[in-house]
Amino acid sequence: MRATSRAAISALLLSAVLWSVPLSRLGAAMAPLVEAVDTVGMTVSDMDRSVAFFTTVLTFETISDVELAGQEYERLQGVFGLRMRVVRMRLGAEQIELTQYLTPRGRPIADDSRSNDRWFQHVAIIVSDMDAAYARLRQHHVEHASPEPQRLPDWNPNAGGIKAFYFKDPDGHPLEILEFPAGKGDAKWHATTNRLFLGIDHTAIVVDDTTSSLAFYRDLLGLRVAGESTNYGPEQERLNSVFGARLHITGLRASSGPGIEFLEYLTPRNGRPAIGIQSNDLAHWETTMRTGDSPQTFDRLVSGRVLLVSPAVATLASDARFRKGVLVHDPDEHAVKVVQR
What is the pTM of this model? Predict the structure, then answer.
């Protein structure tokens, strides 16, 4: 109940601020707050196991591995007494960030977690050959979330011909592999290559209400809407493992980095809200977005009356990744970290 109230209050406060000024004037007066989607991160229970999974199965490359602790990181993540190991990994041009809380340890992902629950988030990994990629996942005995890869039907002009499959990492985080047919997806996904796993196209999040989520991601952060579709039918149901699934899907982009994809379940409407997920819980994902150097950047964010996870902006003088950052919640309590390098 508490989480539902927070999400509703967040959406109302954000809408009150944004809709007090016409969007055309807001866009003309301010540059986008976010310049790029930097990384998509998740909390893991065993870093060595997770690194081995992403390296061996999905061919990610480790680019940094650090331990972090101290007051400013406690402030940033909203977790007191933390010590965490953070590993950045790259696939193609995109990066993920894995975080293991050495202390305090959080809660596991619920065994009955479903694809339409509002804490759901995944990354969509593009593959050059779905059959070969699925065979590789089977060889490594990954946990299925879809029964098998699905080809979305041709009657859907925006999604027809796309092949997709949901599976899980060792902690139960949902992941997706996608193969785009000719004419769909970014041109870079169609370049000739001998690689099987190519990079990350987007991270998908379940939202309760697209309009409220657009107020946060488009109107406050400045991402642009890149496309929309309504997906349903037996292929979509099997992909998501949700009987009767009918989704309104909205894709957004910053100037660079993976996209953000809203999954609003029009049916069934029985997905559960996030309930107090903390940064050290394994259900925690966070999308890191990079801003410019303007000293007013964080003032604009905080004045948007978003729900803060960090009690204040954290200054991290010795961090090679960024100098300042703040962790906030969107209207459905998905975590978004906004940073300045």
Answer: 0.89
